[in-house]
């Protein structure tokens, strides 16, 4: 990593953004690792399992727009504080009042969407402190907070066995309280925060076709990552008969791979350009997702195929957000919300489609194949726009960074 990076921005804010994002993501996907126990107690079918784990993803996707607007109007730090307090309140309600029905699970999932919406706060909070040539690295580090999904997969099933799955919601309040304290002490808004925009200006961004391309590209990379992170515990349990705890360990390995390499994806994109990075990542993701769809005979072989798929998707996340600030630097708040929303929608689609695929066909194959095809469509789309991007806003001397 370039030594000048640590002098270019505000490391305490970067740390606070990472920790806030990390533990928010932990609780955002919590229903996935707990899904086997919850489904067993409530007698849920495959489609209901898919909807259960997909609901927080969809809620988080839609709330990213709301949080993106709050970021521009209240500045990132205050917007993040509001989101964290709502999540703490939701977990407190679930823990003290108990979750007794599928409908209550869905309500909790919608409230946990505010944790997923932390994306729209943490990234602008960090991004605004750093110049263009360090955007990939800064947003890769802040975005590595999606590693919180590892914590959920690693610890939630075991804690549910020891204390009951409802108690896990209360236990989650402990690390969330630590993250909130760090956030209040160290996070600081950049002096370069742009003025708030009117709703007409937000809608104006959607008239730019590049905004739609970024939304689609991220719906595949992040959608694939979070959709799998939320679904793999149930997948390994259903497909291979692994216990909830063992399935959680397998899921944690996959998610760790995808989250660990997000900063590497951002650094690589800073070095060779985001477009070139994404061309490689979409190709690899499509190939490994197609391999998963075939159905590996053992869980170890399935793990060996899913891990590289998650690596490709994780690095793709970092590469997309190396490009977004170059194209939409002054609109980074609303664009983070829009692009993040699209990523959540992609995750909702993948998680729910895997459940419905299993329910209707008795296999997950169709769900995996369709998403692999979406990765191929993204690859074709990137080839279509790369020349225009490199010769306009990505021209040397315009953005000050590799495109």
From TrEMBL:
InterPro entries: MFS, MFS_dom, MFS_trans_sf, NO3_transporter. It is found in: Membrane. One of its GO terms (biological process) is nitrate assimilation. It is a multi-pass membrane protein. Coiled coil: none annotated. Signal peptide: none annotated. Residues 12-390 form the Major facilitator superfamily (MFS) profile domain. SUPFAM superfamilies: MFS general substrate transporter. One of its GO terms (cellular component) is membrane. Gene3D superfamilies: MFS general substrate transporter like domains. One of its GO terms (molecular function) is nitrate transmembrane transporter activity. Its main location: membrane. Belongs to the major facilitator superfamily. Nitrate/nitrite porter (TC 2.A.1.8) family. This is Nitrate transporter. The lineage of its organism: Bacteria, Pseudomonadati, Pseudomonadota, Betaproteobacteria, Nitrosomonadales.
